[in-house]
# Entry
Amino acid sequence: MRPVLLNYYCVAAAVLVGAVAGGLAVRWLRAGGGVGGWRVVGRAAGVGFVGTAVLGAGGLLITGVDGFTLIHVAYVVGTVGVPLAGGIVLVGARGRARPRVVTAVCVLALAAVPVGVYATYVEPFWLKVDRVELALLAMGAVGAAGAADGVDGRIRIGVLADLQTTGVGDYERDAVERLLGFGPDVVVLPGDLYQFDAAVFAERAPGFARLIERIVGEVPHVYLVSGNTDTVAGLRRIVGESGARVLDNEIDTFEVRGVPVRVGGTTLFGDEVAARRMAAALVGGWPGADGVRGDGLTEDGTGGDGVTGNGAGGDGVTGDGLEADGVAGDGRDGGGQAGVRILIGHKPDAIELVRATPVDLVIAGHTHGGQVSLPLLGPPLTLTNVPRHIAAGGLHELHGTPIYVSTGVGRERGNAPQLRLGVRPSIGIIDLVPSGGGGLG
# Structure
């Protein structure tokens, strides 16, 4: 109910600010008295700024302290109130009473209307496919053997981040179908699957469960981690017995065409100590080597890589994920077989867990690419500590580790303005390919 009330409030605030600023500008222009065009523009802009600030603060009475509320009010004022003010001046002050500079500014103000329509109703639903390729030295030996046998040595990962929706509709189902059309070997959902109140969970969860079941029906390895708007418990209720797995600072291991793959998932707002121990385990030994089980633990319940089942440090691995000699494991088992290690986190900041001991790939979401990206400047707001060019989305490298940040399928909801501008939503397709030299593809 509050988001609906906030929407009406923002529109009313925008109309009020635009009408007052435009009306005062007309009065100043008609009065003349040596008031120049730029001075009128400056005064009107000052009135608009003060009005937006005051009414933005008023919006907090509806939602409580929330920066997204202020952004919401400012956005609606910018796309409704500003063009309204420009239209009032164009109609109310004609001829000599309206200097050319004022006319130019008013015409520019009207341009905010199509921008607002595009950002609200077009770009948020203009889904794209972001395809990237990453060459990994860890796949070199296996890939070469596969190529000799006429087998494609690549591993394809589908990324479906930040659906962040109140319910599953045609848009979300279409995103899943487009992703499945690329035939991924693994699908990763790095948080913010849903965004709604707990009171309606039982009503809306079945739609998400069917979506997960659809993915699992086509893809053998499906992994989720929690984000800002969902929870581990909620995701596990949705996943149920489908075969998908919610990784709560846990690791899973499997093979794709003979290549061992180890996936670790970190929980946002979870146990930080457990997350660090999981990261240490991720860069350690492989199942099948010296009695390591598929869950990353040895047969006696201790981590084969030096991390015990309850998270206590064991032989050979320090708390920062390094082996006792300070060197990270090389991702090979006792037989020298190469393997791929992937860390999934909702926020790109999860890469800090493997800063000292790089893995082969980190996959994250959260930023929505900034949701708004300005020419030459990029995204003004990313809500992460990684560099802005990385938070903006795509495949990059940080601290020696490749990191892929998805721009996400959905958009911020709740008190935030539901828009995208300069950052189209996307599904990600990451192809891991063998390399003799490693690096980004």
The radius of gyration is 26 Å. Residues 2-31 form the longest helix (30 residues). The CA atoms of residues 152 and 168 lie 35 Å apart. Residues 143-151, 286-337 have pLDDT under 50 and may be disordered.
